[in-house]
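Input set for joint prediction.
Command: fold jointly, output tokens.
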Amino acid sequence: MKHQLVDGVLYFYFYGDLDNLTVCNLKQICIDLIEKYQPKTVKLDFEEVTFVDSTGIGFVLARYKQLLKMHSELIICNLSKQNMALFRMSGIFQIMKYERNGVKL
Amino acid sequence: MNEMTLIFKSCLENEAFARTSATAFLMPLNPNVEELMEIKTILAEAVVNCMIHGYEGSEDGNITVHIRYEGNVVDICVRDEGCGIEDIDLAMQPLYTTKEHLERSGMGMTIMATFADEFHVTSTPGKGTAISIKKILHDTHEDSR
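tokens >
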């Protein structure tokens, strides 16, 4: 995972298989970076993600809740067709925005 | 008919092993990208459930994955000897989770049920849980025509 702060927006870029073990390893790093920068917007970029499951959805929902407490927003970016199908199933887009492309590293 | 059984410890790193082994075993059926993703996701959800719910994070439990296929019909069974599920109907509810503090989404069962052609859960509290899935892949004979 990589991240960057551009104009007050904190971007996270995920790579490869975002499975249970990977999420366990990334979770605290993301929590801490959000706490450190206090961004108004966080964008999660899934362009390079080859696999994601319900663990990934749980992680996204938890970051959404973390940001809600700070009155900040979360935007999901660049899901593949397969990953989009999985995210849709959870109804996550009823509460979160989605966009394509955006700022890259 | 072809079949295989994997038995492994409930350590987190074995989830990737289980899903990649399952897809490797099914390669002769020539699954398409979508089917592969669905099978990988089913395996991930099932195995993670055994680890974090069945064995409640203990890495000492055994998880059994049994896969068989005949023609293009695949049967997958994932089993643990963990704590079991008291109320299966409740566990099947979308977004229901007992592990919100672990940032679980409560979507695992729903995802498996959606991606499977048939999906069954059997469980005995104190003894363990087994999930059985039937997945019908596209007819590979169609590809060679």
